[in-house]
Protein: Ferric oxidoreductase domain-containing protein
Amino acid sequence: MSKWFYLNGFLLLVAIWKLIEHAIYSSIQLPVWLGLAGLLFFLFNWTRQAVFSTIRNHPKRKVKVRLAQLSKKVVPFHRYTGTAALILIIFHAFLMLQRYGFALQTPKILIGLLAGITLVFMVLSGWLRLFWPSVKKRYLHIYLGMTLFVLICIHVIL
Ligand code: HEM
Structure:
């Protein structure tokens, strides 16, 4: 199994843990729910990377074929789930900025904004690939995904 499955699982567990903390110390409010929903949509799409990686490295042909069929089933939704993640995160960011202000000295907000900007480019590169596919754009999309994954991890942990 690809290391990305474990990393995705780790990020999901950290996010759930943070939500439990919110629930214990105050209550889970709409802006946080929106952040979690955006994260879930991102993770749904990013798990395809884990599936591809497993297809490339798995020794058994039967497993490779089954995973490829599964991946083919979700591909029609990929761009829409990515766009949905962006829309949810825009609302998340808007409500957070309304609550805390444009406080770039706060690491959570600074890293959140960097993640938000990366997500904009990730979604854009995904749509551009539909109309003008190229190997460069494919790699750009994957590297943006990796960068986004790291930024979201830092954002949620902080
Ligand atoms: C891809 C982008 C993003 C994702 C997936 C995301 C996800 C999340 C999640 C799941 C939480 C709740 C867990 C926690 O408190 O650590 C959260 C909290 C937070 N997010 Fe984001 N976020 C993103 C972008 C942003 C942006 C652009 C901002 C800009 C203002 C932001 C500001 C915050 C703040 C201030 C909190 C803490 C809320 C509190 O403790 O009251 N996030 N985010």
Observations:
- The pocket of protoporphyrin IX containing FE is lined by residues 15, 18, 32, 35-36, 38-39, 42, 89, 92-93, 96-97, 100, 108-109, 112-113, 115-116, 119, 152, 155-156 (CB under 6 Å).
- The first helix runs from residue 3 to 25.
- The mean pLDDT is 94.
- Residues 3-157 form one domain.
